[in-house]
Design a protein that fits this description.
Blueprint (H helix, E strand, L loop, with lengths): L4 H14 L3 H7 E5 L5 H8 L9 E6 L10 H5 L6 E5 L11 H9 L13 H11 L3 E2 L1 H11 L3 H14 L6 E2 L1 H8 L7 H9 L3 H13 L6 H18 L7 H8 L8 H9 L2 H18 L9 H13 L1
Helix pairs in contact: 6-7, 7-9, 8-9, 10-11, 11-16, 12-14, 12-15, 15-16
Length: 313
Amino acid sequence: MGEESYYIDLIADYITDNVLSETEKEFNLTVVYGADVDIATVINAAKRYPMMSEYQVVIVKEAQAIRNMEELSFYLQKPLNSTILVICHKHGTLDKRKKLVAEVEKVGILFESKKIKDSQLPVFINSYMKRKGIDMEPKASAMLADFVGTDLSRLTGELEKLIITLPAGQKRVTPEQIEKNIGISKDYNNFELRSALVEKDILKANKIIKYFEENPKTNPIQMTLSLLFNFYSNLMLSYYSPEKTEQGIASWLGLKSPWAARDYLTAMRRYNGVKTMQIIGEIRYADAKSKGINNASMSDGDILRELVFKILH
């Protein structure tokens, strides 16, 4: 159960693929969807004995759509040992105060699939690709993380696309390949905008804003504002870090790699705490404007241009 569907699907698919042989699946694999069944149907399926197999597998997908899920607790008081019942409850969690959760934990495993944080995305990308025998350049990981966000199903789809399009014999993904195969400009993206603001490079920052304005579909303002808000919020926290080093900042912010802390150290030299608080306020004000609050005529490009001016001056 949980907000992150990727791991829920991964576990269900693994059980589907590995518990039964192809022959056993014909009689012993049942896959149903919550919108199409009631809890009585699920319990009846779970109570069946396997045919010519040690186990039968019952997969309930989109289980959050089932009404009266609590009634499953009666089956769980005396479950059939030959049945592997997999309940996939997406986009939320069961009420942990209810009896059902207690019964699940007595006889089975309750796994909560939580959304990962933006700061954890580069580590997820790198570990996913390493398992495939491929390295990612840090900038390439950051570009992809900024572009896709925390939708892991979409992110892994983009990573698989990268793997397929890598030239024969090449085992390293560069920013150029991200640009070519994913459609993100290696020079004009949120990662580069953040770097320009950290370095206080006025010309570069405004070039990127102009590019965003001309390509709004691939560079929506909400994504840019969200990433800037996260960065400057973390920068504010960085001032309170007991140890002002890459390792110290990374540990303080919960970053998986000291490399990710470099921009914060640089930004701490460029911006003081008071200015950082002002910037956070300006980003929130820009977010409100982008949603039409106190804004009669400004375009997304004008809002970003004004925000960048206020950050840099």
